[in-house]
Amino acid sequence: MKYFVSLSALLVLIGSPGRLATSAAVQTASNQPQEMVQTYCVTCHSTRAQMGGLALEGLNPQAAAANAEIWEKALRKLRGNQMPPPGSPQPPQKDVESFVAWMENALDTNAKGPKAGYVPIQRLNRTEYAASVKALVGVDVNPKDVLPQDIQVEGFDNIADALSVSPAFLDQYVTAARHIAQIAVGNPNPRLSSVKYAIDANQNPDDPPPLGTWGGIKFKHSFPADGEYQITLTNLAVGPYSNALERENTVVILIDGRTVFRQSIGGAVDLSLVDRTAGTGRSQVMDRFSKIPVQVKAGVRDVVVAFVDRPRVETSENLQRLQPYGGLTGGAAPTDRRPHLLDGIAVAGPFNPTGVSMTASRALIFVCDPKQTGEPACAREITEHLARRAFRRPVTTEDVNRLVPFYEVERRNGGTFDQGIEQTVAAVLVSPQFLYRSIRGPEDVTPNTEFSLTDLELASRLSFFLWNTGPDEELLTLASSNGLTRPGVMEQQARRMLADPRASSLVTSFAMKWLNLTTLDQVVPDPNLFRGFNEPLRRDFSTEAQAFIGSVFSEDRSVVELMTADYTFLNDRLASHYGISGVTGPQFRKVTLTDHTRFGLLGKAAVQLRTSYGDRTSPVLRGAWVLDKLMGTPPTPPPPDTATDLSQKAGEQPKTVRARLEQHRDRATCRMCHGVIDPTGLALENFDAIGQWRTRDSEANLPIDASTVLPTGVAINGVVELRAQLAARPDVFARTVTERLLMYAVNRRLEYFDMPQVRGIVRSAAKDNYTLSSIVLGIVNSNAFRRQGVDAAK
To answer: What's the pLDDT tens digit per position in 460-483?
Structure first.
């Protein structure tokens, strides 16, 4: 084997300006790629053997672009050190890296084939549907309550060819549309109803009651009309054996931050009453908190019911200055010496409704007054306004003519103007023009040819990419006048949209799904082994991960900081779990870390939990996660009949997970994959299955050994040294982020012909230290984003 010359020398030989190489050197360099393939690859990948369905025999690396699809597959395996497989003769790592760099350059400078892939018509996934409904009519929809789970492709649920529609979906869309339209328009004379909010279901650590409160809950309630509503606190723990009345406390009810009810409970008077009359006295105390009348305007509003020690409360800002008992927020009181909510809150009404105010939803819908313009003209104006925003394009007379009859039929049948508009809203929400996104291209496009997206199609693609919903007024107006494709305008709009709070969807819908952190509930830690684990802690894991990723994205930091950042976001419970002192209270806040083991994603409990089993860690899952999510080189899935059970055998001396895994890896067929996967995962063994640091395996009662030799041949010990190895090649992680983000942006699986564009975006982003915006701008200016390819099925 003739070793490769250095990468810099190779680049000189293939065309650096101002330098001439001797013919002998050029010949040597040109032979080296072929020699490497012949020496290390062709034995398994000959035309006869074709291991893994791949044949490299006879292919000329010097003409790599002619077989780009094959070489891109080979490159991914080489970058992940998955080929040649462990146990086979290995080239020096520097030769692998030189070959990869040389081949990537060859493919990028001589790229052939399509510039964009084909994206079929796609329906909105349930997250996009909910966000679009919110933007269109101002109604908050829980996606899980409206539609079934969407099919995921590599973690993403927005891939077009997986977003099919069944009759069940259509029925649910219709049902949801009717309900949403009713809430959005409102009803001046609604039926009397009562809704009960359970305590556990409404204690959200991401949206807690105000600081300084305890024992309370926060929820959103839809008030259908202006009028009186009655709120009942069904159980305040004032039982026969409770000491809850020993001290006076104050119950407060706030609606949209304003106090609408304040009443004391406990203290000398209440305690004396109960002591004298027992059950009758307790009932009299509770009567003060039953059917509490409050006047509320129509709309969806935030309701808080909580306790404070002092009665001087007028707004939520005042509450935030009070922190009795360490500032407990939400949940039950720490002892039964204080009253607390046990059985939830009931909201009944409206009583004596007085109409419907101009709610946020109605403001989005009723853009005219029928008393001033006349009902038919106003109905048509409302329909046109709604349809334009819902269809994400200017509407035609024909579009409006198809929708107006829904209003007209309701009016002819005796319905009010508002009820007619309600029918129109429902019709818009079930229209295919709203539920589906499609790319048709210019009217004069030649069939079966690649073409550029129209301005309106680009506006929709950009908006769903960055916001998970359709274009806002500025973007839609710009696209309607064909202004989006003018030089520099797309970049200007992308920067504006990244600065908008709606860009947080890149955290929840892209990053958390890319990293497989939206499914933490699929791992159920064994309560006998992990007694400190509970559901609030699981939610904390998710909150920390979202807040951490969100800070990197929203502050436009280098995406590499996702691996290396020396800060995170903690509350007191999670800080205690990590062994970090000085954090008090339930609110998450930014904390600078001094423990290097907690830096970046690899130090997050969410990652450790998701890559474990309920009873133990899994170096296999963890190693595969690093290879796939951080390095972009996912290992080959195991065969269906592969044994994965590493359970301790009854009567056998307990072994560490590492020892059990090494026993499993002794088989040659297993070693081919595990020789690549396991070394990376073993470096994370100091984290247990719920992300706590440990130095001993409690089951085997032996020290944890986190030392390992990576497939590159580098010996490391533990997570800090693993992170250093990953961070030493920032372009590798940046390429992984770019590849996944491009897939998410264009709603399709990436193809071999996309990879030169991916690498070009990464090279350009390197000048800005791989900030999120530099990668996003590279994507939105790429052919993959701006063009539509040919449907290969035709």
So the answer is: 999 999 999 999 999 999 999 999
Inter-residue contact 699 to 648 (CB < 8 Å): yes
pTM of the predicted model as reported, rounded to 2 decimal places: 0.88
Contact 64, 20 (CB under 8 A): no
Task: Please check the confidence at residue 162 and state whether its pLDDT lies above 60.
Answer: yes
Q: How far apart are CA 624 and CA 629, in angstroms?
A: 8
Cis link prior to 350 (omega < 30° from 0)? Answer: yes
Cα–Cα distance between 427 and 681 in angstroms, integer?
53
Question: Long-range contacts: 127-133, Cβ < 8 Å, 24+?
Answer: 127/157, 127/158, 127/468, 127/505, 127/509, 128/158, 128/464, 128/468, 128/469, 129/435, 131/467, 131/468, 131/469, 131/502, 131/505, 132/390, 132/434, 132/469, 132/470, 133/180, 133/429
| Token pair listed for 657 | 């997970």
Instruction: Report the half-sphere exposure of 43 (CA within 13 A, side-chain side).
Output: 8
The helix or strand, by DSSP H or E, that contains position 452, with its residue range, turns out to be strand 451-452
Q: How long a stretch of residues is the chain?
A: 794
41 and 84 Cβ atoms separated by less than 8 Å: yes
Task: Looking at 356-396, list the stretches that DSSP marks H as alpha helix, in order from N- to C-terminal side.
Answer: 360-365, 370-373, 375-391
Selection from 622, 637, 612, 635 nearest residue 688 by Cα: 612
Helix (H), strand (E) at residue 145: helix 143-146
Q: What pLDDT score was predicted for residue 341?
A: 64
Contacts of 175 (CB under 8 A, 6+ apart): none
CA distance 458 to 485: 9
What is the pLDDT, as a whole number, of residue 365?
97
Burial 352-366 (b: 16+ CB within 10 A, else e): ebeebeebebbebbb
Distance CA 500, CA 468 (A): 12
HEC assignment per residue over 460-505: HHHHHHHHCCCCCHHHHHHHHCCCCCCCCHHHHHHHHHHCCHHHHH
Q: What is the Cα–Cα distance from 525 to 616, expressed in whole angstroms?
A: 8
Distances (CA, A) of 632 to 106, 557, 560, 737: 21, 21, 14, 8
Half-sphere exposure of residue 358, counting CA atoms within 13 Å on the CB side?
7
Quick one: the chain helix, strand, coil %, rounded to 5? 45, 10, 40
Residue 194, SS3? strand
- Extract the tokens encoding 732: 């590798």
- Closest by CA to 564, choosing from 723, 721, 685, is 723
The answer to which of 55-69, 525-539, 597-611, 688-702 has the lowest mean pLDDT is 55-69
Residue 598 has a pLDDT of 98
